[in-house]
Specification:
It holds the Pfam family MoCoBD_1. GO terms for molecular function: xanthine dehydrogenase activity. This is Xanthine dehydrogenase molybdopterin binding subunit. Keywords: Oxidoreductase. This protein has an eight-stranded mixed beta sheet. α9 packs parallel to α10, α10 packs parallel to α18 and α14 runs parallel beside α15. It is about 30% helix and about 25% strand. The N and C termini lie far apart (about 95 Å).
Length: about 800
């Protein structure tokens, strides 16, 4: 007896379909699984969920001081405001108050003192957000101000740190520098960056009948939110369910900092027995949450007449804000990437996590890697200026060598294997016509008095894996139904990057069925427990492998059954384009085969698991292999600068990027281009400004400028490296693509320096902090034109 779930097909039709090839598996440009819903507005985010009649809304009153003792806290006036249901303070938390992700230092609400402007002090729940805000503003709170650390250089001098410092050392840098023909030293300020996700931090919490909660949360890290909500409530983790279908952007800002709104809403939900939503308005989100770490980096470098580095000492100091958060790992990654694509034989790299009275800075795309790379790219340009060489010539002279030829080991003693940055650079140099354009730019600059052009090629070598080794694991749940449809759940989170689409393609490829037969369900801590955050570019590497593992377990059961049932070899059971061919005995649609397996009591559900092999890092000895592999990229940017105002425009960008064997070329190119533009914003327009009281002045889109459509380069050429599969056993030999392209934008910053060189006095080398706003570009021009008029022609 058989129930047909698909239109009947003849043997010839099924054979023809199988031979046609899978149209939506791995390597195909399948559209994003939520694209149509996002365009039409049907995609549901947390704030789109239907509200309950008795739902409460939360507003948190923020500290107006960077550092102060709370001398009076009276919330009774809050209850005089209409609609106010309850007010909570630090004393109302039933469990643990501290919600620091790794180390303590992040109280859910201020406990006796405040440590940054924007810290939540009380939380008010009312029948509307406006009423909650009015209720919070009615509270009477008095403070006694304390000295505040607001300047990272001053805090560094005072050795104010949130965690211990760390040093990586290879060779004898001091002696190598002393013996070098040329020595330079200097420093560089690298600014932070606001995440500016479209969807601000938001959680919606529903209390359950057993004293627990269901939390609908916009988070990259469901398990951590589950753990911290259970901690503040004082209940086991099994009483807390986190559900996360999609985020309206994350970029690292929802890895740890989604926890506070979720925890506050959960405490109020348990206290009142009512559903609670806590959504941060944009200004409050920008003031309350941390950013990309600003860095103050110092260096001393010795090099020969060809610009080859003989010895280097680098100190990277990340502005952690008031608490540890993830700063130790972020500064570690800045140290790991202080070499970028360059061999540093004699090197000492030191990292500090500096404590200041600002919001606790956190993860952001690249996770410290971009800030670390900036120093060595600054050094390359500075060496080139000192020797009057083309910066590209200096860069290529310092590249890592091929494995086994020497010059292939990092300053933390990991071998750089499968290095092809030389070939990629040569490819891009030729395809973008770099040499001819540099000559043309030199001629242009010689005749143009006001407008000057610059061009630069910069590389990227980015390590893939969590530097906290234990996080390199993932789980997935795959369920196959008797009609051939497949339900897929994994521990990763979808924030627009196409993770669900890629993982669905992986499962489709494994069963050789169309991706449309697969439904990816919301990330759910009851289906896949103990998940790692979706971060470190590892979402597809980890969750894709886990889903593949689950699918292969089911497929193996199906093959074993078919082999036994039809008395054929397992090798004769072939899955192809939705058809299952069983030797000469039978040919079935995948749906009919699933039903046959069920009738014969074969389990069609499985949990999969994956852990990344080979990686380790010994913090005590600063040695190891923290990365499974490296992803490479090269970009060329051309800019034009108005030397009277410092204003500029990016004219052309050419990118060649390595994604291994691409799982989805369209999504990968989108990630490369999007990452580049976001990186360009970090290095050009996105300036964070605090006043002398520690208050963020750029707390909205009117004062904080992310790149817009008009900032996109007029010519924007993007290519993926072809026919270069990842030699490591990643999922279908692909490579991660989330973070590495971000740092390709360093070529824009370097091109701006190149343009400034054309107006510099003899021997003057431009110093350009990041972000290189028009003001900073204009100041750099003034500094290198000391012997010239600031106006290059007579008015």
């Amino acid at each position: 007896m058989s129930r047909k779930t698909t239109p009947s097909m003849t043997m010839e039709e099924m054979t023809a379909q199988a031979k046609a090839g899978l149209a939506t598996g791995v390597g195909k440009s399948v559209k994003h699984e939520s694209a149509e819903k996002q365009v039409s507005g049907e995609a549901l985010y947390i704030d789109d969920r239907g509200e309950f009649p008795n739902q409460l809304h939360v507003y948190a009153l923020m500290s107006p001081h960077a550092h102060a003792t709370i001398t009076k806290l009276d919330v009774s006036p809050c209850y005089n405001m209409p609609g106010v249901r309850t007010v909570i303070t630090a004393n109302d938390v039933p469990g643990e108050l501290d919600i620091g992700p790794i180390l303590p230092g992040d109280p859910m609400l201020a406990d006796g003192k405040v440590v940054y402007v924007g810290q939540p002090v009380i939380a008010v729940a009312a029948d509307s957000l406006d009423n909650a805000r009015k209720g919070a503003e009615a509270a009477i709170i008095e403070y006694q101000e304390l000295p505040a650390a607001l300047d990272v250089e001053e805090a560094l001098a005072q050795e104010l740190f949130v965690t211990d410092s760390h040093t990586q050392k290879r060779g004898d840098s001091a002696s190598a520098i002393a013996q070098s023909a040329h020595v330079l030293e200097g420093s560089l300020h690298v600014g932070g960056q606001e995440h500016f996700y479209l969807e601000t931090q938001v959680s919606s919490v529903v209390p359950t009948e057993d004293g627990g909660v269901i939390v609908y949360c916009s988070t990259q890290n469901p398990t951590e939110v589950q753990k911290l909500v259970s901690s503040v409530l004082g209940v086991p983790m099994h009483k807390v369910l986190i559900d996360m279908r999609r985020m309206g952007g994350g970029f690292g800002g929802k890895e740890t900092q989604a926890a506070a709104p979720a925890c506050i809403a959960a405490v109020i939900a348990i206290q009142t027995g009512q559903p609670v939503k806590f959504r941060l308005p944009r200004r409050e989100d920008m003031m309350m949450t941390g950013k990309r770490h600003p860095f103050f980096n110092q260096y001393k470098v010795g090099f020969d007449d060809n610009g080859v580095i003989q010895g280097i000492e680098i100190v990277v100091s990340g502005n952690a804000g008031h608490s540890p958060d993830l700063s130790r790992s972020i500064v570690d990654r800045a140290m790991f990437h202080s070499d970028n694509a360059y061999y540093l034989n004699n090197a000492t790299v030191t990292g500090h996590c500096v404590k200041t009275n600002t919001a606790s800075n956190t993860a952001y795309r690249g996770f410290g890697g971009p800030q670390g790379m900036m120093t060595i790219e600054h050094v390359m340009d500075t060496i080139a200026g000192h020797l009057n060489k083309d910066p590209l010539e200096v860069r290529k002279a310092n590249y890592y060598g091929n494995a086994g030829e020497g010059r292939d080991e990092t300053h933390y003693f990991q071998k750089v294997e499968d290095n092809f940055i030389h070939e990629m650079t040569a490819d891009l140099e030729m395809s973008c016509d770099y040499q001819a354009r540099r000559n043309a730019i030199s001629k242009f600059n010689a005749t143009s008095q006001i407008l000057k052009k610059g061009i630069s090629i910069t590389p990227v070598k980015f390590g893939i894996s969590f530097t906290a080794t234990f996080l390199n694991q993932a789980g997935a749940l795959v369920t196959v139904y008797t009609d051939g449809s497949i339900s897929l759940n994994h521990g990763g989170t979808e924030m627009g990057q196409g993770l669900n689409t890629k993982v669905a393609q992986i499962v489709a490829e494994t069963f050789n069925v169309d991706v449309d037969t697969i439904q990816v369900t919301a990330t759910n801590t009851e289906k896949v427990p103990n998940t790692s955050p979706t971060a470190a570019s590892s979402g597809t590497d980890l969750n894709g492998k886990a889903a593949q593992n689950a699918a292969l377990i089911i497929k193996e059961r199906m093959v074993d059954f078919a082999s036994s049932h039809f008395d054929v070899s397992p090798n004769d059971v072939i899955f192809s384009n939705g058809i299952v061919s069983i030797g000469e005995k039978e040919t079935l649609t995948f749906a009919d085969f699933c039903e046959l397996c069920w009738f014969n009591q074969i389990s069609l559900a499985a949990s999969g698991f994956y852990r990344t092999p080979k990686i380790f890092y010994d913090h005590a000895t600063a040695r190891g292999r923290p990365f499974y592999y490296f992803a490479y990229g090269v970009s060329c940017s051309e800019v034009i600068v108005d030397t009277l105002t410092g204003e500029y425009k990016v004219l052309r960008v050419d990118i060649l990027h390595d994604v291994g064997a691409s799982l989805n070329p369209a999504i990968d190119i989108g990630q490369v281009e999007g990452g580049f533009i976001q990186g360009m914003g970090w290095l050009t327009t996105e300036e964070l400004v605090w006043n002398d009281k520690g208050q963020l002045m750029t707390s909205g889109p009117a004062s904080y400028k992310i790149p817009a459509v008009a900032d996109t380069p007029e010519i924007f050429n993007t290519r993926l490296v072809e026919n270069r599969a990842n030699p490591e056993d990643t999922v279908f030999h692909s490579k991660a693509v989330g973070e590495p392209p971000f740092m390709l934008a360093i070529s824009v910053w370097s091109a701006l320096r190149d343009a400034i060189v054309s107006v510099a006095d003899e021997g003057e080398i431009p110093h350009l902090p990041a972000p290189a706003t028009p003001e900073q570009v204009y100041n750099a021009i003034k500094q290198v034109r000391k012997g010239k008029s600031s106006v290059p022609f007579a008015l």
